Amino acid sequence: xxxxxxxxxLVMTAVQGGVAPAHQWAPFEVGASGEIFSxxxxxGITYNVKVGDSVFGWxxxxxxxxxSSQFTHANKKAEAGYQFMACCGNQVKVISGEGKGSIxxxxxxxxxxxxxxxxxxxxxxxxxxxxxxxxIRGYGQGMTFIDHPEVFIYNxxxxxxxxWCLKExxxxxxxxxxxxxxxxxxxxxxxxxxxxxxGDYDILCHDTETVEKYNLDKLxxxxxxxxxxxxxxxxxxxxxxxxxxxxxxxxxxxLGGHGPGMMTLMSALDAKLVPVxxxxxxxxxxxxxxxxxx
Length: 294
Known about the structure:
Shape: globular
């Protein structure tokens, strides 16, 4: 047995989008502790929030690192296709404007607003405008381990999987490097969603004792994380001994039921996936992007 994937069967498809404008959700919002705030939130081109940064401490909520992008909300099926085909770790090319020809990396998708986040180096970000367009080679949906079909894989580029360095054990289980292991009860907004190939769900960080016990204060953009007793094979639900692995894609939020967002990458039942704590388990570190650009 091995961790070989069905790479020759994966379809590579071009999808194209533009910059999603920054939002103001309301003049003021109310946090879970009753605090009143008026902060930046989703959308736009964010210059100073990157993969590798902490998801905490920003004067903002649901902040998306790098470029927030979308196809168009005028066509829901095309928008869903843009989100679906673009996988974490895929290559993205700027195809217009002053930055034309520049290359970046797909980070992940954010449900509700239906944004796809893109990472570019600082010198490229400085050239981008809201008029620019991005071409993505969507590649990764449909991936499976040939010898482990019971592991469901979503939203993951083959190159990132290879850099992640999973390990097959003699007992047939698969060790997965993660930065943090999250208890089942600390998951919030997004539970019950049926599609694992778009959107995300949130890690709740409002309870101080839980944050301290599970080191949730370590969370960074781009971190690989494991969620205990959560099944994401056909929808997001509680199931004992299931494990879901994801990646952190947006910042913390004081809103009740919300927190750092995690997109689904992998899920399996019966403790098939074994999370192993590793401080280098971050997409940026594995691909040398964001704060880890060499």
